[in-house]
Amino acid sequence: MMNSIGKKLEQYTTKCPQEVLLVTVEIAGEQDQIAIFKGFSSSLMRPTAFDPDIPVIPDDAKIIKIDRVASPYNPEAPRYIQQDISWEKMKRMMNDE
Fold first, then answer.
1. Could you count the other beta carbons within 10 Å of the beta carbon of residue 36?
2. CA-to-CA distance for 20 and 78, rounded, in angstroms?
3. Which of 42, 66, 84, 86 is most buried (most C-beta within 10 Å)?
4. What is the arrangement of strands in the sheet containing 80-85, beginning at the earlier edge strand?
């Protein structure tokens, strides 16, 4: 499905390569953190499938928050652009582009 949450966020990072999105999600009752950069998603807490057709963020995932971080991402000293963005607010930001 091309218009999944994960795909939309990946498309955003393709248009904004100077940003890394750190997405905190709840998947099947478990929290995960996903880094999205230049169109690719990777879990920071669990293995990521090698197959790019397997979404890292499933459609039934609950977005808890999204942080925009300046690239390159340094987990020791992240440079936040904006923190604690809701999915609703992020959708509006993506539509404004």
1. 23
2. 10
3. 66
4. 40-43, 30-37, 19-27, 62-70, 80-85
Query: Quick check: helix, strand or coil at residue 91?
Result: helix
57-72 tens-digit pLDDT: 988 899 999 999 999 9
Residue among 38, 41, 40 nearest 61 (CA): 41
Asked if omega into 72 is within 30° of 0 (cis), the reply is: yes
Look at the pTM and tell me if it is higher than 0.85: yes
pLDDT at 1: 40
Helix axis angle for 87-96 and 5-15, nearest 10°, is 50
DSSP string over 47-79: ---S-TTS-SS-TTPEEEEEEEEESSP-TTS--
Return d(Cα 17, Cα 60) in angstroms, integer: 27
